[in-house]
Structure formats: C-alpha cells, structure tokens
Amino acid sequence: MARDFRETLKTKDFVVTAEAAPIKGSSVERSLEHIELLKDKVDALNVTDNQSSVMRYPSVGVCLLIKEHGGEAVLQVTCRDRNRLAIQADLLFAWSRGVRNVLCLTGDSIDVGDHKEAKPVFDLESVQLIHLVHTLNSGKDMTGNELSGGTDFCIGTTATPSADPIEPQLVKVQKKLEAGVDFIQTQAVYDLDELKRFMEFVRKHDQKVKVLLGIVPVIGAKMAQYMNENVPGIFVPQYIIDELAQAPKGTGINKGIEIAARLIRKAKEDKLCDGAHIMFIGKEERVPEILEAAGLL
Amino acid sequence: MIVAERKPMEEILQMIAPYKKVLLAGCATCVAICWTGGEKEVGILASQLRLARGKEGSKIDTVEATVERQCEKEMVEELRDKVKGVEAVLSLACGAGIQTLAEVFEDKPVFPAVNTTFLGSPEGEGVWLENCGACGDCFLDRTGGICPMVRCAKGILNGPCGGTRKGGKCEIDPDKDCGWVLIYRRLEKQGRLDLMRKYYPPKNFRAVKRPGKMKAIKA
C-alpha cells in the first residue's frame, strides 16, 4: 500500500509525483494501466481536472481508481467549472471516499479548451480555494456552518517560477504560503537558476512547505520553440533546444527523457528543492525511464 | 459608456426578411460614441439594407430616426408617429434602449441590429476597452483603480493566474494586458503594493440581486 502523502512529504528527502491525465470518455483501461505501472514507483499520482479546459473523465474518478488499486492520489481542483457550493460538495465526497490530498488551482481559461462557449465560473480562485480547504479541514463550511464530519486534506498548490514579469506572481505565491500549503509543485522549469531564485523567495516566507520541481520532458527542438512562443510561464533555454536539435532523427523523446532526468538528478544532488513532479502527458508509460535515469528507482 | 457592435448583415437581413417597411432607430448617446448606433450608422445601415434587398428583388422601405437616449421612455415617445407607419423596428441602441423601445411600442416587432458587448471607455481612436462589470460591489479602492473583475479574463481577486504571458500579457490573448500586471505596476508606482499583498476573500456575487432594480433615496 502507498504511504500517506502528507507523511511522505514530512519524512522523505526527495518526493516524486507524476501527473495522471484522465481519458476523454468512460473507458478507464488506459488509466488503470498507468496506475498499475506507476503507483509503486512514485509517491503520489496527481490527477488533472479537465486539463487545459478540455472536458474529460473527472479527476475524482481517477483518484478513486488509484485508491482502489493501492496508490496515493492527489486530487486537482480548479475553480473554472464549479462554484463554491459544487467545490465544497465534491471535496466532501472525495474525502469520504479516501482521497486525502488536494491541489488547489485557479484553472486554465475556457478559451484554451474544447468547449469554448461554456460559461466560465471562477467564483473562487486558487488562494481562496486554499482557504476554503482549510475551512473544511476545521469542520465548517465557507459560511461557518458546522459540518457533520469535516476533512483533513493535505493541501498543495502551484507556482510559475519562469513567469515574466515574476513580481506579481510572487505576490500571489506569498498569499498562497500565508494561506498555508503543505506543498507547491512548480510549472515546468528548465533553468535551475530560476528554481534557486524561486526557492530563496519561498524560504524567506515559509521554512516548511515542500517544493516539487515541475518537469515536462521536451521531446524535440520544435516542441521547445513552440512552448517558448505559446505556453505561458514556460521557458526552455537555448542550450536545451540545441541539444534536442542535435539528437539523431527519431530519438528526440529519448533525449527529452535524458534532459528531464538530468534536471531531476541535479536538483536532488544539489538539494535545490524537495522533490519533482513529472508531467509527461500522453507518454505516461515512459515515466519509469525518467525515474530510472534520474536514479529514483 | 455602453459599448455595442453591429450584428452581421446576414443576421439582420434574416430578422427583417418578412417586412417591407422598417424603422431604423438610433440612439445618440453611448452607441453613437462607439460608432455603432448613432445617426450616421443608422444612415449607413439603411442604405446597406436597401441595396441588399434590392439585389434580392424584395425592395424595402426604410425610415430613419435617432433619439437622444433610447433607454428613456419619454424620448422614445418622439418616435410614435414614425413607428405607426412601419411594420417593424430595427433598433441600433444598446440592449436597454432596445427593450425600452419594445416596451413603449408593445404591439410592434422590435429587432436588435447590434450586440451590446460591455461597459467601457475609449482607449484610443476607434478602440474601446471594457473596464466595468457592474458587479455592485466596487473593488477599485484596493487595485489602484483597475478592475480585476473585468480587466482580468478570469475575474480573480488575489493576483495573476499562472497563465500570464511574456511581457505581462493575458493567457487568452497576447494583444490584451494581464489585468493583474497592470494593477501591480499601478500600485508599485503609488507605493501601495501592500494592498495587493492582502488576502481578499471570495467576492459577494449577489451584491446586486438580479434582475437589478434600484430606487432613488430621496434627500
């Protein structure tokens, strides 16, 4: 059985989680394969919530599958699709069924997804959501009503160390830290100096929070350039793009895995952060290769 | 001011297809200022309709009239004689104006020729920017006079989302500024960044009980 993630965060030197994106549809076989493959290799599987505003099988559904199969799940909750009543109800449900960890996010814009005409909710945002989870943890709902049975979620959130400009983002990170989080997973970071600067800021405000370095393997020079131009908050340095460009044809993915593993290994060896969170969407079956190359298996 | 934009021509033509004599009613206030529904635009639309219908072989008679404020019943009353003489009215006013006109002339079909888009102000020549969501619970004292409810695409209250693009642009449109980066810069300039560092609890989205209705408080 997987260990309680809050306990893992407290006791393990270098924590590793992986993202599990629910499928679009009701056939969960592929999710089950990923769960079986990864549940004993990482400390928790982190399940996205209508990722990139694309409608999918629910995060809580995959979290329950993970629990049923002996893994540890992190429930991602965004504020895009549900108002404060729905979010609270869903959190109570998740807790009652054994989900113990929640990642609080604002959520991508409706405009980037596949239901562009939907009404965006954003009744709350990430900082308010963190406060909300603390309130449920205290046995009350948002308006102060007593709950018959509250929650005791381990709370995480995200941060974007490569944002430009960074200062407004750091104001928000500070608010998240003040609200109280057990862990932060970063957006993909490729420049470890950026991670160092981010850690300095975090440690000024919070000595205890665990920071997991976000890893998104880049599998080709073109993908890296595309990400730099189109994905907000991501910056792939030129030397990585060059390295990918030099990889023989058809081996980009192997090079991407090698670079990802190198970043993790370096972050671990130099004690730059407290762990890594691997987001290899659509290529989950290759996550073990990253773990192995990073010396984490 | 209220900003609106003209509906696509095909949509307008479809709405008034059954009618041979139509009044085009403009408004000389907000929609005139945003180049959508004033006297000039009424004239342009009237000639475009006549041309299009002429081509189709189903000629249309157009009557043109623009009132000072189409959202006021007394001003709309001025149109009574002209309305009598037509089969339908095509209004180029904002939604408030269209509804006032439809209420005053209950027995006449009234159609919208524009889409009302937002409350805003001119940013430059021919460019208007949304800057008020009419939420009924003004937050501008905490944000240097920049509204996060509408200047941020997600309308969030505690700082930027993680989607801010390079140079402080919005996740959904590189041509639009991130509202929270604007707020940060304004507050920084004023030496009031402490306001942004404060936590703001979830907003009261029921500050205005919809549908809104306000009674003047007499002094």
Structural class of chain B: alpha/beta
Helix % of chain B is: 25-40%
In one word, what is the shape of chain A? globular
CATH architecture classification of the largest domain in chain B: 3-Layer(aba) Sandwich
Radius of gyration of chain A: 18 Å
How many structurally independent domains of chain A?
1
* Secondary-structure element pattern of chain B, one letter each: EHEHHEHHEHEEEHEEHH
Structure characterization notes:
The complex is a heterodimer of chains A (297) and B (219). Chain A is an alpha/beta fold and 297 residues long. Chain A is 41% helix and 14% strand. Chain A has an eight-stranded parallel beta barrel with strand order 1-2-3-4-5-6-7-8, surrounded by six helices. With 219 residues, chain B is of the alpha/beta class. Chain B has two domains: 2-117, Response regulator (Rossmann fold); 133-197, no CATH class. Chain B contains nine helices and nine strands. Chain B has helices spanning 9-15, 30-33, 39-56, 73-77, 80-84, 95-104, 148-151, 179-189, 194-197; strands at residues 2-6, 21-27, 61-67, 88-91, 110-112, 114-124, 127-132, 169-170, 173-177. The interface between A and B is medium-sized, with 37 and 32 residues.
